[in-house]
Amino acid sequence: MILFLDVISPKPKFILIDNNKVIESLHILENDYTRISDIILNKFLILLKKYNLLDKIKYLVVCTGPGSYTSLRVGISFMIGLSYTNKIPIYGVSCSKFISQFVSKKDFYDIFIIICSSN
């Protein structure tokens, strides 16, 4: 199982992936919360209880940019804390590098990609 944290989107979310399928996508921010730091732990605990995650997660993945400095800082720090305390490997992925993995060289000039970050 992979826990992916998208902190570059205007609506940050946890994405839980198992066998190359998204099994849960949980938005972190709600209407009454404006800062990711206020609620990220509570949202993670929802997933933790629902799926007993710590026994099942093989990898943690977090977007490293571009995006809001504060969201990146909070999200990456949160995931590093999970990684160290639970001995789970963590990988940081730049959004542009992530997307480039799916664009072939022959199609490069025929594709238009827009990255909408919260910044």
Describe this structure in words.
With 119 residues, the chain is an alpha/beta fold. 34% of the residues lie in helices and 23% in strands. It contains three helices and five strands. The protein has helices at 36-51, 69-86, 95-100; strands at 2-6, 13-18, 21-27, 59-63, 90-93. A five-stranded mixed beta sheet has the order 3-2-1-4-5. The model has no long low-confidence stretch (mean pLDDT 83).
Mean pLDDT reading: 83
**How would you classify the helix and strand content by structural class?**
alpha/beta
Strand/helix succession: EEEHEHEH
Largest sheet: 5 strands, mixed
- Estimate the strand proportion: 15-25%
Helicity, as a percent range? 25-40%
Strands ordered across the widest β-sheet? 3-2-1-4-5
